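Schema walkthrough. Field components (list of strings):
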Amino acid sequence: QVKLVESGGGVVQPGRSLRLSCAASGFRFSGYGMHWVRQAPGKGLEWVALIAFDGSETYYADSVKGRFIISRDNSKNTLYLQMNSLRAEDTAVYYCAREEFLGSWLDYWGQGTLVTVSS
Amino acid sequence: EIVLTQSPATLSLSPGERATLSCRASQTISTFLAWYQQKPGQAPRLLIYDASNRATDIPARFSGSGSGTDFILTISSLEPEDFAVYYCQQRSSWPPFTFGPGTTVDIK
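Field assembly_structure (string):
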């Protein structure tokens, strides 16, 4: 069965960096685009970034453009989110999610990892 | 950026009742709309895609309709496990992919 497991969250000071990982199993990871979506405490869902199945295309929300980098290692079935220059407003649960084709719906989600940006 | 609005913000109903949730887009999005369900402490789950297609393993009591700017999610008869937050999302014009603010369906 499809499984997505995020890791790497934690407490980090403003201005510092953090890298999240999403380990995929149960499907051919190299055949699917992947997204990061976040949810601030008590708030709604906010799309963060998308990477194509082969890493050739990436897209970002304006709120993270220039600070976050989405990448993937298909040999390790792993998705990454490098988060730099973190701000308090980046505090959220970060979910990785699979899409069926570029720009399609998010059909499987991980359970999320919490990132808290605080001094 | 396409903005999605959802109404009502909260819907208080009893098990067995019919739930009708609305999502409106700031510009036409054809049928490029999905609905997700999220329970406390859990990840969202895809319910409906392309406005009216049920995702895998989604019960028939969930249905979606609409096109253009106005969309409806209907739960024909609420089961106890259906009390949750429901989000709509568009993929007509991206990036960004945008979500609505959510509708909470709680027990009356």
